[in-house]
Every structure is written in C-alpha cells, then in structure tokens.
Design a protein that fits this description.
Blueprint (H helix, E strand, L loop, with lengths): L7 E7 L3 H11 L3 E2 L8 E2 L4 E7 H9 L5 E5 H7 L4 E6 L9 E8 L14 E4 L2 H10 L5 E4 L14 E6 L3 H5 L2 E10 L1 E5 L1 H5 L1 H20 L2 E9 H8 L9 E4 L5 E9 L3 H11 L2 E7 L6
Parallel strand pairs: 1-4, 1-5, 8-9, 8-10
Antiparallel strand pairs: 2-3, 5-12, 6-12, 7-10, 7-11, 13-15, 13-16, 14-15
Helix pairs in contact: 1-7, 2-3, 3-4
Length: about 290
C-alpha cells in the first residue's frame, strides 16, 4: 500500500478475528463496506485505507512500513519477534472478550506429565518460532514441526504433543487432549510502525481510532439504566447503584421526583433491578450502549 501524508494505511485481520473486528469497528462508529471477494474494505472515513491481512503476517508488514498500523494477536507479534510499537491492548477474541491461551497438550493417556517429559519428543504447532525459544529457555530439547492445521488430531501418531491455541478448551477436550502447561496468553493488540507513530498526524489518527475501539469494548458488558425516584427514597436507591463514578441525577417536573441515569455491569441486573424496585425506584428502563469513553 502506498504511504500518503494524510492517509492511514490500516491492516485488518483476515480469518478468525475478521468478523469480531469488523463488528467492533462498526460499534465504534466506523462504517466499512466489505465486498465478498475483495481484500480491501472501504472506510467511509476517506483518511483510512485498509487491507485484510492474515493475523499471522500482520506484525511483519507493520514493522516493514507497508502498513502504518494494524490489529493482530500478541502471539503473532511474539512469533515474528516484530519490532513494532504497541499502541493498545484490546481484549477481544473470536468468541469473547477474554484472552486466549497457547498450551502444550497431550493425549489423556500420555506418559508426558510435565515439561521435562518433552525432552526428545516431537511437537506439532503453528507457533514454531516462539515454541522453540520457549523450550530453549526451559532447557528442553524437542523436535518442533510446523502444523498447517487440524493440529489437535496429530497426537499420538504424528506428534507426541502439540502447542495449540485455545479459547474455551472445548476442542482439546473433544479430541481427548489434556493441558500440560500454558506457554503464552494472548489478546488482540493495535500495533503501529515505529516511523508512522512518530508522524504527528498519523499518531493522532491512530489514538482516535484506539479511543473509540476501547470505548466500544468497554460498552460490551455494560448497560445504561434510567429510573424515577422520589426524594424520600433517593438515598436508599443510590446506595444500591454501583456507578462507574456517580449517577446522573436530574429533577423532574413533578415536585419531589428525580430521574437517575447510571452505567452498570450487565451481569448485575438480575439481582439489582428487583432491589431497586423494592427500594422505591419506578419507571426503570434499561438501554444498550455503543461506547463508554472514560
């Protein structure tokens, strides 16, 4: 991609992170058109030019300056030992908002119980470079084979163990594998080319994008809650509200009544709403949030 003064060349991850990334950008307020066969999503913001790149390759293209910035996993930055500037950690993955793990896994009936038992064994993984460095640091000598996919099926016939990515552990369990050790935790990172980061305009553009993406992520597990409360019940109701800072309180046209507006964790609603009702709150309205900017 050609570098232009007031154009930001952004890499978006192709593959497992693609759908969740595009969804996050949409929630952050960016309108993106993606053609079924095109690798060049079009932003309504004409100052952003984007390209879909496999997350495994993203850090290399950002390091080399082909892209100004991009989103990829911390695991692939470590795999490539890429010299990039990490702008922000964004806690989302393919299926949720928690980090993923790379683990050493073996068949349930394997004699391999600890890391030391891997000496002289064959290990299959897509994360070859990092796995070699990790085992070397632990003084473990093993043969590391690159896996093109379907890594879970390789033990015990094609490999003694695997180093594989897991988000929930369900795929490992389905293939009768157990975890020996976690070698790396990874989350999505917004990274920048070091030279691009020194460009004042591009840096500001990246910081703005990250702020909105973080705001969209912060809103994922939160909701807004509005309610009406009389003056006599106000103190009791407020004591129940775990506000980010403090509720917004507005007086209503009816004397002695107040409107409370608060942002809370969605998971607390089942317990909280009955308590608020019992404490005197009425007209309780829950509403979804797109962004929460601290």
């Amino acid at each position: 991609m050609k570098s232009k003064a007031n154009i930001l060349n952004l890499g978006l991850p192709k593959g497992s992170l693609q759908e969740s990334t595009l969804k996050l950008f949409k929630k952050a307020g960016y309108h993106i058109s993606v053609s079924g066969r095109s690798y060049y999503p079009v932003f309504e913001d004409k100052e952003i030019e984007s390209m879909l790149i496999r997350a495994q390759e993203m850090a290399r293209y950002v390091e080399n300056g082909i892209l100004d910035c991009g989103l990829t996993g911390y695991d692939w930055i470590m795999e490539q030992a890429a010299a990039v500037h990490e702008v922000a950690e964004l806690n989302y993955a393919k299926e949720g908002l928690r980090p993923v793990k790379w683990v050493i896994a073996v068949p349930n009936d394997s004699t391999i119980k600890t890391l030391k038992d891997l000496n002289g064994k064959r290990i299959a993984t897509e994360l070859v470079g990092f796995t070699r460095r990790y085992l070397k640091a632990k003084k473990i000598k093993a043969e590391i084979d690159f896996s093109w996919g379907a890594t879970e099926v390789k033990p015990p016939h094609l490999a003694d163990a695997i180093v594989e990515l897991t988000e929930t552990g369900s795929s490992l369990r389905a293939n009768n594998l157990r975890i020996v050790e976690t070698v790396l935790e990874s989350s999505t990172r917004f990274i920048a080319n070091k030279k691009a980061w020194q460009n004042k305009w591009k840096r500001q553009k990246m910081e703005n994008i990250v702020m909105l993406l973080k705001g969209a992520l912060a809103a994922e597990e939160k909701v807004g809650l509005k309610m009406n409360v009389t003056q006599k019940d106000l103190k009791r109701v407020m004591s129940l509200l775990p506000a980010m800072h403090s509720p917004t309180i507005s007086t209503l046209s009816d004397e002695g009544w107040y409107d409370l507006d608060v942002v809370i964790d969605e998971k607390t609603l089942c317990d909280l709403i009955p308590k608020l009702k019992k404490a005197g709150a009425s007209g309780i309205v829950e509403y979804q949030l797109n962004k929460v900017i601290p």
